[in-house]
Amino acid sequence: MTGHLDGNALAGPLADFFSFDITTTTGRCNACGTVAEFARAMVYMSGAGTVVRCATCDHVLAVLVDTGERAWIDLAGVSAIEVRR
Amino acid sequence: MSADGIAAPPGASPLAAIRAVPRAGWHVATVAATHRETPNASRIELDVDGWPGNAAGQHLDVRLTAPDAYTATRSYSIASSGDSTRVVLAVDKLPDGEVSPFLVDDLRAGDQLEVHGPLGAFFVWRPAVESGDDRPVQLIAGGSGVVPLYAMAHAHADASDPTPFRLLYSVRTPRDVYFADEWRALAAASAPLQVDLVYTRQAPDDWPAPPGRITREALEAAVIPAAERPRVYVCGSTGFVERVADWLVGLGHAPGDIRTERYGGT
């Protein structure tokens, strides 16, 4: 995988964990305070896992590691989320 | 939304029934047909058991499993929309790809695939009667990034939606145009659509501009002006999307009016 993708690519990997669509969910970056849809974040995928970075300041918003048997999500870079129903 | 049998929660907005997208799930897809779309891409029609329908612009994930249980999952935009369980993809073959060469060259009618979807509610277009938004729509595609935009233009025509649509499509050569016949039909349909092409490697003989990468000036000339507040959808490689999005903001388009989807390497 070359370069980065964007948060649209999180829709599948996170569909099993949240009952809402993550791509239209807004998150607040706890480094710069930007509030944006996760679809607008920068996403770096590798064999080791997926890193989600703020499109404004590059701060790590979230890390996803999925082994198939277990999945682990770190959302330490997000201070709040808002779900649109 | 009750597409998968789950009732809307108490207190949900009445709009939820309109806005919500069907829940994603894993499905078995049977290949109904494949054919060459371009020298480097195939159109793949799938019959997906239990597919709840999808909105224009959504994608799905395809998971391939090798005999040794190694799996590879990749995302593909859906070229179709609506309630049908027939789902159409158009897949570009990436030279070092793990999944796309199999899908483009080896897949045959009757083969089965695991698919996960429909996915994503961000890069989606809905008819004005549903969204309540009748601002004009500018679509901008780089290469195979045209696939979800084709789904939007097709849904727009199917709905006879009066929203003005314009497509700017950057493509290597005339042979690389996806949905070439369909674009001609859509441009002649009652829903307003204007199609502008930019050829980056080789243009038709009578083409007024030499082939080359799209420029900021060419973009400005071929997109709906910022003063008209168009909603803009951009899909292509990461470099294409970021270059175009930066220019759009420079031309006065509000970042919030620009929706982007990048595709990656393998």
Written overview of the protein:
The complex is a heterodimer of chains A (85) and B (266). Chain A is mostly beta strands and 85 residues long. Chain A contains 1 helix and 8 strands. A 5-stranded antiparallel sheet of chain A has the order 1-4-5-6-7, with no helix packed on it. A 3-stranded antiparallel sheet of chain A has the order 3-2-8, with no helix packed on it. The N and C termini of chain A lie far apart (33 Å). Chain B is built from 7 helices and 11 strands. Chain B is α/β, with parallel strands linked by helices and 266 residues long. In chain B, the strands form 2 sheets. Chain B has a 6-stranded antiparallel sheet. Chain B is 21% helix and 32% strand. In chain B, α5 (180-188) links the parallel β8 (165-171) and β9. The A-B interface holds A 1-9, 11-12, 15, 21, 23-24, 37, 39-40, 45, 68, 84-85 and B 9, 12-13, 16, 19-21, 24, 59-61, 71, 73, 75, 116-117, 119-123, 238-239, 241, 259-266.
List its traits:
heterodimer, A: 85 residues, mainly beta, 5-stranded antiparallel beta sheet, 3-stranded antiparallel beta sheet, 8 strands, 6% helix, 41% strand, globular, B: 266 residues, alpha/beta, 5-stranded parallel beta sheet, 11 strands, 21% helix, disordered N terminus, DUF6510 (chain A), DUF6510 family protein (chain A)
